[in-house]
Amino acid sequence: MKSLGILLSGRGSNFVAIADSIDAGRIPDARISVVISNKADVPGIATARARGLTALVIPSKGRPREEHDREVVGALKQHGVGLVCLAGYMRLLSPWFVQQFPHRILNIHPSLLPAFPGLEAQEQAFAYGVKVSGCTVHFVDEELDHGAIIVQKTVPVLNGDDEHTLSARILEQEHIAYTEAIKIVLAGRFEVVGRRLVAGQKAEVRMQE
C-alpha cells in the first residue's frame, strides 16, 4: 500500500478529488496517510477529519521557511509518506524540502505551463486573451511552477467566459489530471530525460548532459 501525504492551505478540492479516486479504486493500492495544513481552521482540514483521515495543522506564520519545512517533512516521514501531493498549498517549498522527496512531490497548476506561472493563473490567461487554457500536473523542483510536466489537460476559452467560468471548467480538469498523474508516478513506469517525462518506461531519472 503506497502512502500519500497531502499539503493544503484552504478548501482542498483537489485533495477531495484524490481521496474520492482512491476510494473508488481509480488510484489502486494507495492511501492518504496524513493531510497537513499550514493554516488552522481551513475547510480542507475539517474535510479530512470528517473522512477519518489523520489531519495536522503545522502553522507557518512568522516562522523561518526551512524551520517550518523541517517540521512538515518530519510529520510526512513519521507517517511513512512516499508521495507528497500539493493541493492548494500556498507556500514555496525550500530546496531542502524538495531534496527530501526527489521526484516524489507533485503540484497542480491552473494553466498550461510554462504559460502563466504563479498566482491567479486563470485570470492571467483570460486577460491575455488566449483561446486555449488548461492545467498542468508537474514534479516540484527548487523553482516556482517549473518541474518536469507529468500530465496536461486543455480547456477551450469560450466567447461567453469570464475568469470565474473559465476557472470552474479548468478545476474540473484538474481533478481528472491529478488522478492520472498520481497513477503514473506510483506505477513507477516513467523516465525523465531533461525536462521530458516519458510514461511507460521503467522508472529512471536522467539529467540532460
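^ that was protein a. below is b, sequence first then the C-alpha cells
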Amino acid sequence: MSFSITITGGTYKGKKLESASLSTTRSTKSILKGSLFDTLQFDIIDQNFIEVFGGSGSMGLEAVSRGAKKAYFIERDNHAYKVLKRNCEMIDNMRTFALKGDSFEIYPKLIEEFAQKSEQAYLYFDPPFDIREGMEDIYEKVLSLIENTPKDIVVMIIVEHATGTKMPEVIGAFRQKKSKKFGKSSLSYYIVE
C-alpha cells in the first residue's frame, strides 16, 4: 500500500510525492511540516538540507521546492529508498541526492565532505522512534551523531521526536532554541551555542 504526500509550498507546490509503506517509515504530518517551513521561511533559500533518515524525502524535497540549493537524503530500507529515488527524480534530479545505507555510517562521511568543502547545511533528524525493532537506543545514537557534528557546517539542527521524549537543552556545541509539540510528535530546533 502506498499513499501520497503533497508539496505545500514553493516551485513544486501541489506536486504529489509517493510515500513509503508505514511499516518502514512514518509520514510526517503536514501540520508539522508546515510549521517547520513557517519557521525557516526564506532562510532556506540557497542553503543545503540534509534529511538524515530520508524515508520518502518529504522534508528535503519541500526544502528544494522552497529554494534550497541541494537536498541530501540517507535511507537504508530498500523499499523506502526506491520510493525516495522516484520522488527525487520527479522533483529535481540535479539538486537531490539519495544515499543508500545506514545513517549512522553514511552521515559522518557526508559531514566530512561538507567540512572539507566549507559548506553549511540545515540538518534534519527524524529517527524511526516507534517502528523498527533494534531501535531502542536510537536517541542516544542520534545525540552522539549531533554532538560529533562540526559546528562550522551547521546552519541549524532540527530533530523530530516523540513528544514524550525530553530532548536535552544542550547537545555538544548546540543549544536548543525552541521546541514545538504536534500531538505525538515534536520538533526541537538547535543552533550553534
